[in-house]
Amino acid sequence: MGSSDRLAQKPQIRLVLAAPRGFCAGVERAIRIVELALQKFGPPVFVRHAIVHNSHVVERLKGLGAVFVQELDEVPDNSTVIFSAHGVPKAVFAEARRRGLNVLDATCPLVSKVHAEVERHHAAGRHVLLVGHAGHPEIEGTMGQLPPGSATLIETPQDVASFEPADPRRLAYATQTTLSVDDAADLVAALRRRFPDIEGPRKQDVCYATTNRQQAVKGVAADADVILIIGSPSSSNARRLVETAARGGVRRAQLIEDAAGIDWPQIEGAAAVALSAGASTPESLVREVVDAFRARYEVRLEESSTAREDVTFNVPRALAV
User: What are the start-end ranges of the E strands in the chain?
Assistant: First the structure.
């Protein structure tokens, strides 16, 4: 073999795709609601906050005629407004109804389930401890289902230790749907130790998709030198996947938005790289990352699957076709 042939030869690498990954049923439903609303009502259709936490998805929908706003006062009268998959406070719904806006609710049904839980606990006279991350729109939406002061955010074990209830026998908890499964379990265990009478959900609030994607990442972490999680920095579930990978003992776990974010010097020398994607990441971005590897490496592509998903959610009746 000549020197030019040796120089042209690509290094080999094993690329392992973790499954399940990418879009969950709630994300698919939310995106479909925007697409169908644009078809039925025509652009512009207004969306309060990012419909899901992925900049590529948002930009594509902008190209179709969706207009993303932060608050309702940016929405003109007589317009169609869509609420994001993360849910909104009751006051936002009330304001939209007062103004006579055409409201389409894209809240994930699993988030709506948590809303119903906290309302049930409040009606029963319980103070709600909401396990989650401050500032996340899902937390703001869930807190906003209750009157001010009816719920307390729990982010850390220190929050559990410092919370002083008016009546420790009248407490309940709920959790954000996109938390780390392990972190949520630890905080719930701490709550139950301190408040043995606390009420909780019949089934955990961390959603099936979050759970499945974290399990899939755990399944590939031990056998990979590097794990790349494809998702936006604003995506809670994507960031939790990076944390899950790091806990699994992988040498390097990195969040990238797309193929342009790959840190190639960190890949050099790796024999195996695993890929996963947050629940709001389109599969097209996974394919782009695989193609980027193929441009630099002789890729042996494998898939590691830990669960099968067949969950679907219906769109609102106003958009049913």
Answer: 12-19, 45-48, 66-69, 80-83, 102-105, 127-131, 151-154, 171-175, 226-230, 252-256, 272-277, 298-305
- What is the pTM for the complete model shown? 0.92
Cα separation, 315 vs 105, in Å, equals 9
Could you give the C-alpha distances from 19 to 105, 266, 282, in angstroms and in order?
A: 29, 24, 14
Q: What is the 3-state secondary structure (H, E, C) of 154-221?
A: ECCHHHHHHCCCCCCCCEEEEECCCCCHHHHHHHHHHHHHHCCCCECCCCCCCCHHHHHHHHHHHHHH
Q: What are the tens digits of pLDDT across the range 189-216?
A: 999 999 999 999 988 899 999 999 999 9
Name all domains of the chain by residue range, CATH numbers in brackets: 10-23+208-305 (3.40.1010.20), 25-107+313-319 (3.40.50.11270), 110-194 (3.40.1010.20)
Known catalytic residues? 138
